Amino acid sequence: VDKKDEKLTTNPQIQEAALWINKNEVVAFPTETVYGLGANALSDEAIAKIYEAKGRPSDNPLIVHIAKESQLQNLVKSIPESAEKLMAAFWPGPLTIIFESNSTVSSKVTAGLSTVAIRMPDHPVALALIEAAGVPVAAPSANLSGKPSPTNAEHVLHDLQGRIAGIVDGGPTGVGVESTVIDCTSTPAIILRPGGITREEIEAVIGPVAVDKALTEKGQAPKSPGMKYTHYAPKAPLVIVLGSNTFMQNLIDKERQSGKKVGVLATEESKQRYKADVIVACGYREDLKTVARDLYDSLRAFDKEMVDIIFSEGFPRTGLGEAIMNRLEKAAGGHIIKE
Ligand code: TXA
Ligand code: MG
């Protein structure tokens, strides 16, 4: 579907997808971050199908997507002031807010927690689909569990063909990394997952926030169940390299000398500086939005090339760089080499 279509809610493809959701089946759809795998958040039967299609551990709760703010009060016990302000500033948009649940959504959505994660996506196709379905739509990223999240319909097809009722193809997503998850049930609010809305942007609206310790310290259990799993991983091992181009090149050369096919994740600015078997440029370092946008497609590109090992440049941990480094670290299983 064309996301610029004026009458998306009556678009036949969106109508068909909404019908599947009403029949408690699962369909993939685009959001501004990544493709989601949507199902009726009120139905145990529908939600079970999401976990099954993705191979997702059942203790990892889902985000509920809404199209209008009026849907929110039906799902939560209360709306804290911090959440009010964040919604006014960032919804629709890549910010997921954790509320106390009033247990309207299926307990499978919340994986038995007393809280529920809610967001209003900033994508006309997603909003039209939720509206046409007439129910809140639970949706994790539409990838097989552990794989990089899908940023176009092809990625979804690659992972989930034959496992879901269909995909609404709305072209490539824009933001490229998932929404920021923030817990507004405590004061100050706590960022559980860095994402499309930066900590700096959030603090400009509600003042200082906390960041889940598990994001910065080893050995801490994350407050967001999903953050404990290895994720975003390409097939080959990935290593983040923090150092000069020469340092990186030495690592590449050593692996190539032992007969390995070596991939490098670089940027448009730096891609000419390396000699390796496969070099993928992931956006412009100067503009981290382009790096976030291309990150998962770049990671998936190495699977097609069947490399044996991947070395990746690192990024500054400020602004969108926090989300980018968080995803790269997960893809690398924490493997970082410093010069
Ligand atoms: O951008 C996004 O957020 C995408 C699109 C499709 O909206 N969705 C997405 O969903 O990334 P998923 O399931 O891949 O990630 C949801 C994250 C997980 O880390 C999960 O543990 C966390 O949100 N989460 C969900 N409900 C929670 C809750 N009640 N408390 C804490 N964390 C929660
Ligand atoms: Mg995911």
UniProtKB/TrEMBL annotation:
Residues making up the signal peptide according to the UniProt record: none
Coiled-coil region: none
Listed GO CC annotations: cytoplasm
GO molecular function, one term: double-stranded RNA binding
Catalytically driven reaction(s): L-threonine + hydrogencarbonate + ATP = L-threonylcarbamoyladenylate + diphosphate + H2O
Chief localisation class: cytoplasm
SUPFAM superfamilies: YrdC/RibB
Binding-site residues for ATP, renumbered to this chain: 56, 60, 115, 141, 149, 193, 232
InterPro entries in UniProt: DHBP_synth_RibB-like_a/b_dom, Sua5-like_dom, Sua5/YwlC_C, Sua5_C, T(6)A37_SUA5, TC-AMP_synthase_SUA5
Residue ranges annotated for the YrdC-like domain, each copy included: 11-197
Pfam family, one: Sua5_yciO_yrdC
Domain of life per record: Bacteria
Keywords carried by this UniProt record: ATP-binding, Cytoplasm, Nucleotide-binding, Nucleotidyltransferase, Transferase, tRNA processing
Chain residues that bind L-threonine: 33, 65, 119, 139, 179
Entry function: Required for the formation of a threonylcarbamoyl group on adenosine at position 37 (t(6)A37) in tRNAs that read codons beginning with adenine.
Similarity comment text for this entry: Belongs to the SUA5 family.
The protein's name: Threonylcarbamoyl-AMP synthase
Source organism (scientific name): Calidifontibacillus erzurumensis
